[in-house]
Amino acid sequence: MNNFSERFEENFANNRRGYSMGIARVFLILIIFVASVLLISSLFLFSKVKKIYLGINSGQKNIEESLVLFKEGNFSGATLSAKKSNDDFSSVLTVVEELESFFITKKISFFSENIEDFKYLAKTAETLSRSAEKSFFIAQEVEDIVAGKKFDSFLEFDEHEKYRILKLLYENSPDINGIKANIDLSLLYLDKAKDNRFLNSYDDKINKLREYLVFSSDFLSNLSSFSAVIPALTGYPESSFYLIILQNNNELRPTGGFIGSYGIMEIKLGDIVRLETNDVYHLDMPASLNKSFSVAPPEPIKKYLGVDRWFLRDSNWSPDFPSSAKNIKWFYEQEMLAAGRSEELVDLSGVMAIIPRLITDLLYITGPIEVEGKQYDKDNFIEALQYEVEMAFREEGESEWNRKNIIGDIVKEIKVKLFNMPSDRWQELLGLFEQNIERKDFLVYLFDDYKRGVSSGFNWSGEIKDSDSDFLMVVDANLAAFKTDRVMEKKISYYLEEKGQVLNAKVSINYKNNGWFDWQTTRYRTYTRVYAPLSSKLLKSSGMSSDNSFVLTEDNISNPKTSFAGFVSIEPGQERVLSFEYELPKNVVQLLKDEKYYLLRLQKQPGNNISEFKAIFKFEKEIKSIEAQGLVEIKNGNEVHWTNNLDKDYDIKIFFN
């Protein structure tokens, strides 16, 4: 019995040792297997990371080389290097996507999250290099056309070369749109990876890249619009004709100023081949002799100018430039017919309106010009020209009929200097026009619907804007007050208050006449209109010099509005305040309630110099945040004070908790 027990215990011990040995072997095999998997995975990861590292370095080297070659004018070499960079980053993207699908990186969130961000960065680089390749290819096509000529002046090229360059830009409009789309896609990818903590040390470089991409996107947007309207703007393939109106904002009118001169400009293959300007009375007076041409003017013109017929000089009565541009074209053509000059009519592509400040800015770039022995520069142009056409012509024995001929000579001289300007100053010239468009010193209306649509991004058409929320535009019309706007000081205040289900507004315009009675200035006489959201209700008005205020529904403009109007006269050295109080329509109140924001779209009248605009917004709810340019202050949690000069259009957006 004892022997049996001893043998049983011995066999059990042996079996236990064998079992333990078996478990140990399995565990050892498992450890070896896991170690092997980890080793193989590490080798796999290392090889992929190495490929990514080498690909990024190679891609960066190639893109930098392409930029150097591009600056040197070697466009074919730049295109080739950009293509190599694109291939490099495409390979990097492929490797990153392989890592993304690898089972270990999929299971471990640390890897999956960071690989996702690096994938977006790789996509950014790949997309940008592809854009660079296409851009350099277009540049190479331009280089093939110009055949080594320096691009110092567009006038250096012959007609055939100009034709081919404009044709290339026009036909590459879809490619330019594609490049812009790639830039926008790169911005999207870059934003998706911006919060990665491993990229914090590269924040400055990434932010600079983002700023560059935003600039590039905006530039390409304008270039795309330009390329689409090349036929209208550059006279390709056939000449384009524009009616030019010169508006004197010292005698302010709704779209910028009194139309003292007009002209026809012909553009052919990017060159101004014809530019003629004339005194507006050279057309109005002959037309007035034709009794069959008789158009009744708007009532304010009839009443305060004392005329019963309407002519080109007063045709810009609507502050909505598209409406006025159509009117200007109609008066020009009908008066040409009335004057017996039908053979001179051309098919107009559009109307361009120019305010003198654009000319002074151009003189800042070109430097002084000399015409008929007189020098004009950025500082004296407006005063010197005004004196020349109003007073000096008599001293010089010039007839009143020909007194404005000098304007055409000045414009032609500026044109010669601009077209001979070296290419390294074109960016400066572009910036000047952008600034003048923003200030509305330069307005353009194209008659072709498609071309007008694709060029809408230029913001140069001067239409009264649409707004689902609040809107305000103050419009002055100088009626028989000489050039008194040159000495007027104007300030506007706006007060808005929420009271239950009602929004009440008050607009006050302060006029101060700093002039005296002389050949340029006199008492200021203005027919003022305040444009508000459609269906606004007038509650009270004050400050009019004669009659009562008028309430008008203006639905013949781009975006219909309600306007409140009145006539004001201010003696030299005097001040006067014109005010309108009104209730905003229910849809504005409802938007504030439903969407929890309020928006004032504040629009500048072209040519009007408002030295100060102050606004106070008082609400019943607590303010969360504000989006607005200018001096902003929140008071008592529910009140906003905003101050700025009205040098351009502004949006003031207020959000509520």
Automatic annotation (TrEMBL):
<keyword id="KW-0472">Membrane</keyword>
<dbReference type="Pfam" id="PF13196">
    <property type="entry name" value="DUF4012"/>
</dbReference>
<dbReference type="InterPro" id="IPR025101">
    <property type="entry name" value="DUF4012"/>
</dbReference>
<keyword id="KW-1133">Transmembrane helix</keyword>
<protein>
    <recommendedName>
        <fullName>DUF4012 domain-containing protein</fullName>
    </recommendedName>
</protein>
<feature type="transmembrane region" description="Helical">
    <location>
        <begin position="26"/>
        <end position="46"/>
    </location>
</feature>
<keyword id="KW-0812">Transmembrane</keyword>
